[in-house]
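Annotated sample (chain length 173).
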Amino acid sequence: MPELTSTELKAKLAAALPDALLEPEPIAISPPPKHGPPAALFAPPDPLVRPQRLVDAALFVRDTLGYAYLSDIAVVDYLYAGCFEIVYRFYHPAGGSSVVLRVRVPRDEPVVPSLTPYWPAAHFHEREAYDLFGIVFTGHPYLHRIYMWDEFEGFPMRKDFPRQGDKYLGAEE
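Output written by the structure step:
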């Protein structure tokens, strides 16, 4: 079973696609957690890929390293840092641990290339990220809401989405 650490993945990506990786800036967790250091910074070890090079990096992970199964796509909303982080998890068909690619995009212009043309399984996950967070996946064949109705305004999983008093909860404004 293949075992590839984040450090090894970064090295392989840097050698094959020298301009694809970014040096991530740690993100301050706000409000800070009640445990741990007072100014907690979050800096996962997984490679951070430039959005415009995502497809190249993902195809390298699949075609060169053999991690052909795209398990899931998750979105993290860093409201106070002003960005979203899209996290892609890949598995090797022979088993073993997963590898992760991350992409950061600004909250005011969350645009990422679609992986759906290369992984049909990305179709659902990208529609979900679009519907709930407003992430736009360029090249997606059918980027429409999947949970919320078409007339719904906003993106309910964003941290700045109003949780009380909005017209969908039936409370008076």
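Annotation: The chain has a mean pLDDT of 89.
Annotation: The beta strands are 21-22, 27-28, 41-42, 48-49, 69-78, 83-91, 99-106, 111-113, 136-138.
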